[in-house]
């Protein structure tokens, strides 16, 4: 009996060894980031069974997986619809003698390449910077009231609160007027409205779908791959994009418990069509519809006003072949000549981003990074601070926002190029989340974003390198430990 039991134990150990080897091979084959690869290998090898379960729940690279194949096909389909105007527009843009265009030609070429699958630089009649929810929502509601054909809305967080119900009532009103309303919400970020606002919208004839419905069997990976986009398109002519979600906490009032600093954009012009492409690709994926590309949703010929403001929409996520937003940030830093300003609520960078900032600073570029003094997670806050040492040593100036919580995801380069979007400067946004950003090639808009950044610095404290080195040893150890698991955050 003892011999039989020993044989079964040896057989089990052999099978587990073979399984471990197979999973390790898959980790090495499937994971792009070296740091993530090493982290997952350590988990699989040193944490029996649970390490494998964690990898299969959170670590699989869905950028290449079948679950998003349909969405990728749809993206290519939409891209073809723009080919007729693409080459003509490309030549027109590159012929412009603006420094904001000329100095960023390599960035434009990178993001408009076939591999990147992002839009070309497109002309617009108006681009408006909107700081904080109290400035966004009144204007956005006014534009929604003007809708005549369709309203497309996509948010990561939509709360069942005062502003959420105001928007709900407005959408129901527009639907009653015959306007098509389509609504995408993230099933994790907007879980509070599943049984309330979503049901009311559907009862009013509005089509509403979770981007990726969370079911128990797919709980982990569907929570892990979140639609973090915030997009509103009205009649294909006006669009909103940025960091602000639909929640009362984004609106600063005298009674607010915490000041919420955020940034959004309103765009009128052809860039709205690029955001329309992103939205309809998401819509066809989550609704199983196939909304056609036609003049109703892409009114090329009906754009109004002068086309003097240029912007480029960059989207990335498990639906894109490349981490386009990461590439856009790194290339922008590489092209900088004088100044790089970045604001983000979370800084857990890819190695390429961390090194780009270090190299830029050591090369004489004035690099400033703004993050919250107190984040919404102590662990994430510690992970963020674990990357400060190398930056400070290289001369990067790091500021901690003290007035409240800075949730803006913006950067400005040389006062010529500005970016406003949904992506944080962390590996989750670059690799896992569905994100979208707008790059604006205009000195006036860049100046506005730059001025807002420096206004925020007035409510911030700068970290002094010598003082930072004196922080308690226990804190330094905690940073190093948390940094080991930062690839999973």
3D structure, described in words:
The protein has 489 residues and is α/β, with parallel strands linked by helices. It folds into 3 domains: 58 residues; 230 residues, Endonuclease, Chain A; 165 residues, Endonuclease Chain A (Endonuclease, Chain A, 2-Layer Sandwich), CATH 3.30.870.10. 45% of the residues lie in helices and 20% in strands. The protein has a 15-stranded mixed beta sheet with strand order 4-3-2-5-6-8-1-9-18-16-15-10-12-13-19, with helices on both faces. Strands 7-14 form a two-stranded parallel sheet. The longest helix is centred in the N-terminal third of the chain and has 29 residues. The protein is globular, with a radius of gyration of 23 Å.
Counting structural domains, the number is 3
What is the CATH architecture assignment of the largest domain? 2-Layer Sandwich
Category by helix and strand content: alpha/beta
CATH homologous superfamily placement of the largest domain? Endonuclease Chain A
How is the biggest beta sheet arranged? 15 strands, mixed
Q: Termini separation (Å)?
A: 48 Å
CATH topological fold name of the largest domain = Endonuclease, Chain A
Number of helices: 20
The CATH class of the largest domain, by name, is Alpha Beta
| Average pLDDT, all residues | 87
Helix content: 40-55%
Dominant shape: globular
